[in-house]
Design a protein that fits this description.
Elements: E1 4-6, H1 9-21, E2 26-31, H2 37-49, E3 52-57, H3 77-86, E4 91-93, H4 97-100, H5 119-122, H6 126-141, E5 145-149, H7 153-165, E6 171-175, H8 195-200, H9 203-216, H10 223-235, E7 240-248, E8 263-271, E9 274-282
Parallel strand pairs: 1-4, 2-3, 2-5, 3-4, 5-6
Antiparallel strand pairs: 7-8, 8-9
Bound molecules: adenosine monophosphate.
Length: 288
Amino acid sequence: MSIGVAKTVPEVRQRLSEIRAKQRTIGLVPTMGALHAAHAALIQRARAESDFVVVSIFVNPLQFGPNEDYLRYPRPLEKDLNICERMGADLVFVPSVEELYAKAQEVFVDAAHLGNHLCGAFRPGHFRGVTTVVAKLFNIVQPERAYFGEKDYQQLTIIQRMVSDLNLPIEIVPVPTLREPDGLAMSSRNAYLTAEERQAAPMLLRALHASSRAIEEAGSRSVAEAKAPALRLLQSDPRIRLEYLEVVDPAELQPVTEITGEVRIAAAIWIGKTRLIDNLAARPGGQH
Ligand code: AMP
């Protein structure tokens, strides 16, 4: 395999100082591995826009709660490296936990209000783990651009705000959500679903579409009215347990009381032991 693999921070810094000395631009794609077609799309986008593409693969313990899937999260490293190579990445950074957290982390990067709702309300400390590890990766790699998927809309918004609030000289490039043919957003966690559970999963997007139609086509300004058709669909399938369905302001991520402009409809559901999230933009009248 010809793709570069670095396991330590000094190795990455050394390789990238050579790249920077040649005035070449660096694009970073942070991931937790178990790569699929959506990760591949992020890498391809970085490839098209940067001279040198770094993919990081790190299952970050700081962003998992005590009862979450940190230990069972898939780690198919050889397969991941092949995908990175095929997509044209130049360097894969695969640090160990000890490499990134040599000492117990004492200083964190944390968002104030953006993490209050949606996933933040159900995963205490999750976004603090994400912003802290992404800030570390940004400082290690110092990319011109970094690529994040809209599928994790709250994460994307918090990272965009982190870069703006902390004056980091990095452009955050949002990448649209990639889906399976039946609409299920691609996710490493989809592999946890049994065949029976997998059949229930496309209901999540169907429910979000039902809400977005209520806003865009029926012109509903009431949040309760907009949520009603989605709730009906989600509650119609006993395999699905709803965690949240919210209609929020797209930049501040706070629930709106009335739908007067663009909003994000976001939801999380459980099917068996698997948690799935998805989101859609909607605006009254329907023009985006
Ligand atoms: P993860 O490995 O799950 O942490 O994801 C790494 C990056 O890929 C994040 O920026 C995700 O938002 C992005 N990503 C994961 N799944 C999708 C998807 N279905 N569509 C677009 N981006 C995605």
